[in-house]
Design goal:
The chain is α+β, with helices and mostly antiparallel strands. It has a single domain (7-147), classed as Secreted effector protein pipB2 fold (2-Layer Sandwich). Helices cover 29% and strands 37% of the residues. It has 4 helices and 7 strands; from the N terminus they run E-E-E-H-E-E-E-E-H-H-H. It has a 4-stranded antiparallel β-sheet with strand order 4-5-6-7. It has a 3-stranded antiparallel β-sheet with strand order 1-2-3. The radius of gyration is 15 Å and the shape is globular. The protein starts with 5 loop residues before the first strand and ends with a helix.
């Protein structure tokens, strides 16, 4: 069965930390993520890959020392998404102890639109150097956002 309702949010909660929330039908997952990775960049890249017709994509959202992997596969109009929890990314084998948190088919268009929306909201809320000031100097993923916007033209 394909998810009917999909929503995401990305909120910078403090210097160097953000809260990513994934909502699909009645399931909700909140993930704290830090500036140490490029989680928003990875979500944008996964959305772009799927928008451009790739059959699979991957995005990591890391909290340190743990993290979540979003694995997209078998994409057409819908894509099967598995969200995996990795309890300790600092182990020699970070896949040790991995558990599947959620898995379902989602509409590619809904994921792409939700990703585009959260990135645009973050950029509007923290324009210019504002994002970098809160994200330990790391720039906003403007290139990835621009490419995703262009993919609709």
């Amino acid at each position: 069965m394909t998810v009917a309702r999909l929503n995401m949010s990305w909120t910078i909660t403090s210097s160097a930390w953000a809260r990513f929330t994934w909502r699909a039908d009645d399931f909700e997952l909140g993930i704290s993520t830090s500036y140490l990775d490029k989680s928003l960049d990875q979500l944008l890249r996964a959305a772009l890959d799927l928008q451009l017709g790739s059959s699979s994509a991957i995005a990591g959202i890391y909290g340190m020392p743990d993290g979540h992997m979003f694995l997209f596969g078998g994409a057409a109009e819908d894509v099967f998404l598995q969200i995996l929890y990795l309890p300790d990314l600092q182990q020699d084998d970070p896949w040790t102890g991995v558990t599947r948190v959620w898995g379902e088919r989602i509409p590619v268009a809904a994921f792409v639109q939700a990703t585009l929306r959260i990135a645009q909201e973050v950029l509007e809320e923290h324009p210019g150097a504002g994002y970098g000031g809160l994200w330990e100097g790391r720039p906003f993923p403007l290139k990835e956002l621009s490419l995703l916007r262009q993919s609709f033209q």
